[in-house]
């Protein structure tokens, strides 16, 4: 799986600080470094709407459909995902869960090959890609682009970077959290405790 930041609001922290200070008519108190003191207590109090002014876009590739099925449940996120209606899965890649014993890997690969043959068979018998895909596995690799504002990203990280989250969505979200924390530590820093095992 590869997680890549495609775009982020320029000067995101400054923008959020300006928006938040508008509430208190205190924009004149902005100084270099003032956001680091001003924003964390604001977030801790639950005044999170200023975070909605900044957004980020990520591409996640080589992840499983099992993972993206969970990710797309986040309704305030915008999504574009590789289609199984329009893109052929004749040679689909697949994700191997790390819990699989190396001894079982050959059998797992054989099962995937069987599913590949089933997909080809049903297409040959006249099913469209959109119907032949019914026999494809959750392990099928996919490519997805997501955008969300910083408030929604914080929400997603709180539930998906938790040790209770499934390993693949956790890996993707921890990677995104680390990236956003590099750009906006005063917005995401408090969540970095979730990034460790
Ligand atoms: C550990 C874990 C296990 C899960 N297991 C299952 C499962 O077994 N089955 C299953 O179906 N799902 C499961 N889910 C998915 C879960 O129920 C949510 O659908 C998913 O986490 C999306 O999050 P959300 O609804 O909080 O937020 P988002 O859709 O990201 O929305 C963000 C926030 O906006 C608000 N919001 C958005 N839409 C509404 C609305 N219509 N009404 C009111 N408030 C709204 C809420 O405060 C919400 O928290 C699981 C999630 C986790 C983290």
Secondary structure elements and pairings:
Layout (H helix, E strand, L loop, with lengths): L1 E7 L3 H13 L9 H11 L10 E10 H7 L6 E4 L23 H20 L4 H4 L8 E9 H11 L6 H17 L1 H4 L9
Antiparallel strand pairs: 1-2, 2-4, 3-4
The site of flavin-adenine dinucleotide has 9 residues, from helix 6.
Structure explained in plain terms:
The chain is α+β, with helices and mostly antiparallel strands. The protein folds into two domains: 2-80 and 141-195, Gyrase A, domain 2; 85-135, no CATH class. It has helices at 12-24, 34-44, 65-71, 105-124, 129-132, 150-160, 167-183, 185-188; strands at 2-8, 55-64, 78-81, 141-149. It is elongated and about 70 Å long. The model has no long low-confidence stretch (mean pLDDT 97). Flavin-adenine dinucleotide is lined by residues 73-76, 152, 155, 159, 164-165.
Sketch the major β-sheet.
Answer: 4 strands, antiparallel
Number of domains: 2
Approximately how much beta-strand content do the residues carry?
15-25%
Shape: elongated
Number of DSSP strand runs: 4
Q: What is the third-level CATH name, the topology of the largest domain?
A: Gyrase A, domain 2
Q: What is the first-to-last residue Cα distance? A: 19 Å
Summarize the structure.
The chain has 197 residues and is an alpha+beta fold. It has a four-stranded antiparallel beta sheet with strand order 1-2-4-3.
